[in-house]
Write a structure and sequence with these properties.
single chain; 386 residues; alpha/beta; Rossmann fold; 2 domains; 6-stranded parallel beta sheet; 6-stranded mixed beta sheet; 11 helices; 14 strands; 39% helix; globular
Length: 386
């Protein structure tokens, strides 16, 4: 083979090797797995869970009083059950009305509570003052009448229950003398005394009511002493506008009758217990907190609920109440719930004989807000001031 032919053969072989290598490289590229798709960008961090709404309650008595404060605390617990971890509740108990209340309310606002409930009439002025200092906080006051852009009032028609209890008392008394332990001579309490008496007179025109004032909402010793004083004056059926069970217990010790107030007290003195006058704060508290959560809360309002809204009821009637008397009480309760019965319908005379409401006239809220008298049949004079 000539040198030329050898060189030509080597060139062809070299060319083939290059071509084969190129083919192999091409095949290798086709068979390589595609680069793994880049991991998707980390999803945006989950939005942080909203902080719970901080809600606080200010109580004038102890939560275990089985009366007024206990009823409010049941309402607070109803809020916790309804909203779970959307809310964080707290309370301060046994807060005196006045300067101490102002300090406590201000401290709760400074701690970040966004809605605060003050649950006694005497907390009104302190709360009004603090509300002006914390415009971003929602303030709620029980049983008062003053409001502000970030403060509103809620109340219950306690006199609905007092009237029904009066019917029972008027039919059960043997002496025709009823007793009432009063806290402070404010319209709220005077309405209850008067409604109790009017209810009793509707079934027993001979009834008279005696009142002992103790100038406090919660003081078992004073409440018991007042109850004993009324019994000593001939009262054999008692009601109170105070917060403990002392009146009921005193009645049982003396073999008399009495009522539970604000809470179910039937187990405390079962022989003396004729019925319990209930107030349910849970429905309103749930409404208020829901509005605070969803941004629909509005200040400057006053809400007053009663039997029609399920805020009041008379429960656990004693078996000793005769069937016909029980029926009268139940009919009155039904009329109150339906809105067809107004306990304050004229003619209403005060204890001096002066007409305070004309015949056939039903009292409106403005009239009820200004009650400063005893109706005919209530003995004694109203002490001046609170």
């Amino acid at each position: 083979m000539t040198d030329f032919a050898k060189r030509r053969l080597l060139q062809i072989a070299a060319f083939g090797t290059v071509a084969a290598s190129a083919a192999l490289v091409g095949c290798s590229k086709k068979e390589e797995p595609k680069p793994a798709a880049s991991a998707p960008a980390a999803s945006a961090a989950a939005a942080p869970k909203p902080e719970p709404l901080k809600a606080a309650w200010v109580y004038v008595g102890p939560v275990g009083d089985a009366g007024w404060t206990f009823a409010h605390d049941q309402g607070r617990k109803a809020v916790e059950a309804e909203f779970g971890d959307k809310v964080k509740t707290t309370f301060v108990e046994k807060v005196p009305e006045g300067a101490d209340a102002e300090r406590v309310i201000r401290d709760l606002a400074a701690q970040g509570n966004k809605i605060i409930f003050a649950t006694s009439f005497g907390f009104m002025e302190p709360m009004l003052k603090v509300a002006a200092e914390f415009p971003d906080v929602k303030f709620e006051h029980a049983t008062g009448y003053k409001t502000a852009p970030n403060m509103r009032v809620y109340d219950a028609r306690f006199y609905h229950d007092a009237y029904v209890s009066g019917i029972i008392a008027g039919g059960m008394t043997k002496t025709n003398t009823l007793g009432f332990v009063g806290s402070f001579p404010i319209p709220e309490v005077l309405r209850n005394i008067n409604a109790f008496t009017l209810g009793a007179q509707s079934v027993n025109p001979k009834v008279k009511t005696k009142v002992v004032w103790i100038s406090t909402w919660f003081d078992p010793a004073k409440e018991g002493d007042a109850a004993q004083s009324l019994i000593n004056q001939g009262a054999d059926v008692l009601l109170q506008n105070t917060d403990s069970t002392a009146v009921l217990q005193t009645a049982e010790k003396n073999g008399k009758f009495a009522f539970g107030w604000d809470s179910d007290m039937s187990a405390v003195a079962p022989k003396a217990h004729l019925a319990s006058n209930m107030v349910y704060w849970g429905p309103y508290y749930k409404k208020a907190v829901k509005e605070a959560l969803d941004g629909t809360w509005k200040g400057g309002e006053r809400t007053i609920w009663g039997k029609p809204e399920g805020a009041n009821d008379v429960i656990k009637l004693n078996d000793a109440i005769p069937a016909d008397l029980r029926k009268k009480a139940e009919e009155a309760a039904a009329g109150l719930k339906a809105g067809t019965l107004n306990p304050f319908t004229g003619p209403i005379l005060d204890s001096t004989g002066k007409e305070r409401l004309a015949k056939g006239t039903g009292a409106d809220q403005a009239w009820k807000d200004k009650v400063d008298f005893y109706v005919k049949g209530v003995d004694g004079k109203i002490p001046s001031g609170k």
